[in-house]
Amino acid sequence: MARSIRSNPHVSLPGHAALRRSVFLALAVIASASAAPVQAQESELDDSYLWLENVTGDSALAWVRAQNARTEAALLANSNAEDLEKRILSILDSDDRIPNVSKIGEYYYNFWQDAEHVRGIWRRTTLEEYRKGEPDWEIVIDLDALNRAENENWVWHGADCLRPEYERCLVALSRGGSDADVTREFNLKTRQWVEDGFVRPESKGSLGWIDRDRVYVFTDFGDGTLTESGYPRIVKEWRRGTPMSEAVTVYEGRPDDMYIFGYHDDTPGFERDFVGRTIAFYNDELYFRSSSSKLVKVEAPNSASKSVHRDWILLELREPLTTGAKAYLAGSLLAARFDDFMRGSREFTVLFEPTETASLASYTWTRHHLVLNVLEDVRNRLFVLTPEDGWARKPLSGLPSLGTVAVSAVDRDESDLLWLYTTDFLTPTTLSLAQVTGEREQLKSMPSFFDGRRHLIEQHFATSKDGTRVPWFLVRPRNHPMDGTTPTLLYGYGGFEISLTPSYSGTVGAAWLERGGAYAVANIRGGGEYGPRWHQAALKANRLRAYEDFAAVAQDLVQRGITVPARLGIQGGSNGGLLVGNMLTQYPELFGAVVVEVPLLDMQRYHKLLAGASWMAEYGDPDDPDEWEFIRTYSPYHLVRPDGDYPPTLFMTSTRDDRVHPGHARKMAARMLDFGKDIWYYENIEGGHGGSATNAQAAHMDALAYLFLWNHLGGGPVP
Q1: Residue 179's domain spans which residues?
Q2: Which listed residue (174, 505, 574, 692) is catalytic?
Q3: Catalytic annotation present for 574
Q4: Omega of the bond prior to 164 within 30 degrees of 0, cis?
Q5: pLDDT tens digits along 220-269
Q6: What is the pTM of this model?
């Protein structure tokens, strides 16, 4: 479990994985020309819009509702608006989607939302049934029924079930989709909530099983028990039948830490307990908790991801490491015997070493093997390693050369079977049950939600301002003339070492590609496409490198004759919202329209709003005068000028987003509206950082975004 913050399920990036379904792995195309970065007007801004940071304040919500009404009135007046929203909803609700499953005991569980189950159902089936075109599902929890019974708006946040009986589960539920949630104990056999069972009140945090009568609890225990980022600072051991106030403290972190958690590794024969101290992103400590409750630090670099499984500890390096006479590159994956490591041995086996074009995307254990997923110029390659055979390495063959391949273990403690997903921008996702030897059985395939035969996929490389080679993908009409007339949409992210790889989206196809648009994704620095070095190249003072990369991709698209600035739109959410916010304010002449979703924009106050303090390792500390000097160069809220000439822009966010504060989007939109700019705003009243809590909400927001973009980029002669 302990793959640093990246695999900690309780801490969330302001990141790509949390964006709305419509922009999940969204692509885009952009045109660019060189432009000097705009400088912030002042180090201190006279902020007359602070009242919009009051999330549920009457005045703030009145402003939100007025803007929502104005935006909907303008965009939904489009003659095909209703049809587009219905079509998007039909895609999101389609019964032909792949029901992704997780094996829990003898059953395979899936969480599902559709037109009948708006909030969703947690259901299960057998593998034999799952192989069928229409499996027989058994409903375990019906969230719509639960919400009606309790007059709530619960959103599913997952379940942790106790082995080996798999009778009791800790179920997490969120009000409206916020990161803060509650945990309740559920009996899988009776399908009832456990009376007087474990219950954790609403907060950011979690419960995790130790055994049937003990759990680790890390949550809000009262004043002073959360970090400055709003996450748990204390992890405790809580016994059944006692109040949570009597839980015994296992570890207490510092207020300026990011997140403290504990967990029990229930691998048969290798049961162990660990405590994690996340100081900042990619800066964490791991402690082994002995049977006597003594905590022993796992003496590995804080920057390395640390993972313990059975006999082994794996270290994924983010900085170079020298032990004795041996030196290891950043981005390498090292293996050592866990017990030997804890006794002081530093004898490692190098399982992966990066190159200029290759990085480690992920890894997954099966019962007898370790499967590496490697990105080679943003193309997945899988390798099977066998520790009992001296870490013998074999490629997993028969995979597509262009597209995304994702792999995970079906049951890492009992079999070597793998879930294997393959997809690209035009090919619906396929799920197979695979052997590590390469044999596979195709189980499910998504239907085609649009005609992909009319388009083709290309990969290109742009040259950034400093000479860096930047990859990007393009989906374009197959027979469209290369005369710059194609309405084009570019998506980017560029942060937190998150890689963007090709993915099929019925929504993008139906709402954009079918209308003749082109769509692409820029693999800019700040992401993880080339490992830690690609991420670190755009941290803090180097943040502008990500924006220069994005502009370089735009310039490349223009030179290839795909589009022109008047036909070029951009879209990004969260950290990607910060990206497109900077493109809006620093390169406005390059774009015809901008969609900014759940964004960070006020970089002088981001660390004081909700989870913002947890991202200072990425952006810097605005309270440090030296760091503010570079942060101000990429704070869109400070860069926007009354006399600036900006393209039409739509800001979208969620009232229930308790990760990236909705005040960012509210304040930026209000300021630009007061400057007389062509600005539009829509805020979903629930939905969390994902933007929406139901498929209907997602379809509505998607429709607004694509209608806005096509209104400004599509049809008619080139301006």
Answers
A1: 98-297
A2: 574
A3: yes
A4: yes
A5: 999 999 999 999 999 999 999 999 999 999 999 999 999 999 999 999 99
A6: 0.90
